[in-house]
Amino acid sequence: MTKKVNFLVDLVTHLRSELVAAGFSDAADHVKVDEDQIGIRYFNLLVRIIDARPRTVEYSKVYAGTVPNGQEKAIAELLAKVQRGDDLRPHQSRKLVKKSLLANDGMLNDWGIHHLHPDAAGSKDVLMCHVTADVFYAIGFWPHNNWTFKPIWDALIDSWPDAFDQYVIAGVSPSALTDEQRANIRARNGNVFLSGPDGRAYRPIGGGLSSAGTNIAATTEYDRLCYRIQSIEEQVLQKLAEAGVENPVDLTLLFDGVEPVAVLDEASGHRIKLVQS
Question: Of 31, 76, 206, 247, whose Cβ has the fewest other Cβ atoms within 10 Å?
């Protein structure tokens, strides 16, 4: 069968194989995760995973009063891992540990807050935290499943107000919601402005929830990559047409992670490295 040039298909194939190789077996099921969803799920997973890199630990105003008794050693070891840049995935959500590709994290997508288990085997009280490329904001410890408990969000904003100014929506009065109301909204993959302890309105600092429960920012990032790959395909075909090559059928786009890096001519085995413009 003649292969048609389609770099987006190459992207989907690559991302699916990457997920399967990483142990996310749901990615192998084309019914559970079809071609339209595989890239969104891949980028949604990147949001869920805290990448391993050294970070400075900062503590909220309420942190010291939330530390559970008997967990001091495990907590100290966890925070040492954060500072060293160790892999934190064993301490993350149990759904992530169990390689559930289709799971969504409502609190993360809404508030931008991860939760970590001090004991990698699982803990009753979990460390709520906001994580950037360089800083680990340790908010405090609360029982598992307190995903809509507003004091967690308030402690984040009240402790580091300047860090989240970019998320403030001027001229808007946020609605006061109960924990139950927020849980109901999240269960329906809804988004609302967040009411800060300072009375200001904040847009979801986690990126927001799509109608499928995935992270909106992750979906947007995947869309950007698709547009870029479509542009690469158009440029490659245009250059070939200018060189007098008609109807190429054996070209495949190669990737390093999600980065397109080369075009493979399958007929000759020749690789053409992509040059950043």
Answer: 31
